[in-house]
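## tool: complex_structure
## caller: assistant
## args:
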Amino acid sequence: MKLNTVIELLDTDVVTGKVNLDYEVYYAYGSDLLSDVLAFVKNNVLLLTGLVHPQVIRTAELMDIKAVVIVRGKKPSQEMVTMANQKGILLLTTNHSLFTACGILYEKGLYGEEIVHDEITL
Amino acid sequence: MKLHYKVDGGAFTSAGFAAGQVKRTLRQLGISPEIIRKISIAMYEAEMNMVLHANGGNVDVELAKDYITVVLEDQGPGIEDIDRAMEVGYSTASQKVRSMGFGAGMGLPNMKRYADELTIDTKLGVGTRVELKVFI
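## result:
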C-alpha cells in the first residue's frame, strides 16, 4: 500500500516532510511495545503506535521502517519530530485508536506479516 | 576494523545512537541486510540496558573478515539473577521505562535471539560485560 493511500484512509496529519509518498509498504505492525517490534518485524512495514518519544524513531531507523503512524490523536514530542526529519522517516498522526487504524488498513488489503516464533518466545 | 563509542547514561534519547552508527557503517561496507539487522537489534537492546540500568558505558565493535563482535561494558549494579533476566517477561525496569515501550523483559531474550553468540559476565556492584557475536 502506498503511503499516500495510508494518509488518505486514516485521515492523518503529516508531521514530517521530504518523504516520497509514493513509497509502498508491504505490511503493517501495530504495537506499543518497541521490544516486540524488534523481536518480530522483518520486512518493509508501516509501524502504528501510541508511543511518542524518540526511541520510536530509533527503532524505525534500525528496522528499516520508513513510516510511522501515531494513533489516538497523540502529538509527537519535538525531539521525536526532529529525529524523524533527520532520518528521513515519515511521521503521521491519526485520531483513530490503534485497533481501528489497523482495521481500516486491513480492510483495504494491508496485512501483517506472519510473525515467527522460536524457543525464546514460546 | 574497530569502532569505539561512549554511551551516555543520562539521556534516554541517546540509547541506540551507536547501533545506528554501526548500522550505517556496515551498510557502507556492503554487509548483507540480514547480518546488519541481527547486529543492530542485539546492539540496540544492549545499549538500552546500559542506559536504563547502568548509567551508560563503553561499546567496542570489531569487524573481522567472518564475524562482527560488539562488547558493551558498564560499571553499573550488575545483574542479580542472570537466569531470570534471560526469561521472557522478567524485568526490573521502572514504570517510566515501561511507558517508553521497553522494560517488558525482552531485552536479553532479543539479544539471544539475534546474536549468534552471547556472553554475559556480570558482578554485583562492579558492572557487566556483554559480548555479542554475529558470524558473517
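## assistant note: The interface with chain B takes residues 31-39, 49, 51, 53-56, 58-59, 61-64, 79, 83, 118, 120-121 of chain A (CB under 8 Å). The longest helix of chain A spans residues 78-87. Handing back to user.
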